[in-house]
Amino acid sequence: MNLNKASIYHSKCEETLSKGMYHRLFPSHLEITPQLNEVYELALAFYESQILNDDELVKNGAYFARVGKKFSKHFLMCTGEPVRLPKHSSSRLKSFFTKNQFRTGYATHGLFPYRGKFHPQMIKALINVMGIKSGDTIIDPMMGSGTVPVEACLMGIKSIGIDASPFCRFMTQTKLDALTLPQEPLRDALNNYKAIFEYFVKTKGHPVQGSKIKKRSPKDKNSSIREFSADFQSPNSKRIEDLVGCGRADIYNFLLLAYLDSAGYSERSKRKSPIEQFHAILDRYVFVVEKIQNILEGTESKLAEATVFIGDARSMSLEDSSVDGILFSPPYSFAINYLQNDSFHLNVMGENIFELKEKMVGLRGRTVRDKYDLYIKDMDKVLSECARILKSNRFCTIIVGTNDNQLSKALGVPKKEVKGLHQILIDRASTHGFSLVRLLSRQITGIANTMRNEYIIILQQR
């Protein structure tokens, strides 16, 4: 290489390196959020920058901290102290929320850390890139912990959430209500946590501490799905409203969710007593409400309507072509036993989990092969319903993980011959009038031992 060519070459290197990749993708006045470090996040951020104008990025952008001189609403919701965790929490859990401060845990998403839940930041971005605006309606027909309805509510977008589990409906409604709950009764509850704990123990039952600490799987897999006995007694004469000075049902439900959350921790750990768990979790819940309401102060009236109910995604009671977008994740039934995780909570609600099992997609069937066949059949019905209720040219986004090892065993074929669930759903969706617009993949961190990757499937109704 001669001197002149070498000079041109190094000048090009200097020019390329000095500008950086982000400056080539985004205008100079856009500053991305901290911790954005995965390819799918960069892709969604780029789509947001192309689809939203500056005012929309400030109001509802997911991956931008600042637009010009204005901080984004998302950045303001996430800054400061992250989710308040008990002092006895593991360093791994503390590290997770610190590293993912802008992805999850903010607003009322931090109430009840449901397994397999979405990263809310990703959901916000997907709502944006699907073109959902204020006045539109988005639906999550398998809402789980309610990430889509809560996020849509914060964005000023109407939403509908459906789930077969009564506990998921209860949990989601409580998260929505928490956005506007009066704070004074919650502070009183924190001061009277011992009496409130005893009230729930006597009216709702006591968890069996350590009963769900991970052990070797039993030979009979069905035996892991059962109702743990709760010591039900007569209700305490001292009612909740006497302890917090308020008889509102949404306050009661908020405190009950905190109790059920603490019950779950007690079943999975013996490190702290149940009452210590309850105190720590209630403290976190009150912190969550105070933090998000401080951010929303003066803009509460802009929260959008969210309707959540118990229902079946395979047969939705909605009119044809009535929604502007669909965003959901099928249950990770191959990786997560939702009924075992929620057995105490469902027991408290008077639900028979054996009957509920037959209503839930992915849990029906005796053998793994039976479950797989019924899962595919059920998801075909779900996709048919999605096609029916979605308006023409609108988008349906599905986020699904796959486990080739389990599918290989279920189908009795070598792993290399297994077709992933994401591809199966894409193929099935095409038979109902959907076409694939974009497919993104991301690594799963929470359940990587059973499911390493999940796929973001963006479909369009033809």
CATH architecture of the largest domain: 3-Layer(aba) Sandwich
* End-to-end gap: 55 Å
- Written as H for each helix and E for each strand, in order along the chain, the element string is HEHHEEHHHEHEHHHHHHEEHHHHEHHEE
Sum up the overall morphology in one term.
Answer: globular
Mean pLDDT across all residues, rounded?
A: 85
Total strand segments: 10
Largest sheet: 7 strands, mixed
CATH superfamily of the largest domain: Vaccinia Virus protein VP39
Helix content: 40-55%
What is the CATH third-level topology name of the largest domain?
Rossmann fold
SS field, number of helical segments:
19
Q: Name the strands of the widest sheet in spatial order.
A: 6-5-4-7-8-10-9
Low-confidence regions: 216-237
Structural class of the helix and strand makeup? alpha/beta
CATH C-level class of the largest domain is Alpha Beta
Count of domains: 3
Determine Rg (CA atoms, Å). Answer: 23 Å
Outline the structure in words.
The protein has 462 residues and is α/β, with parallel strands linked by helices. It has three domains: 3-75, no CATH class; 111-166 and 303-337 and 352-461, Rossmann fold (3-Layer(aba) Sandwich), CATH 3.40.50; 183-296, no CATH class. It has 19 helices and ten strands. A seven-stranded mixed β-sheet has the order 6-5-4-7-8-10-9, sandwiched between helices. The chain has a three-stranded antiparallel β-sheet with strand order 1-2-3. α7 links the parallel β4 and β5 (158-163). The radius of gyration is 23 Å and the shape is globular. The model is unreliable at 216-237 (pLDDT under 50).
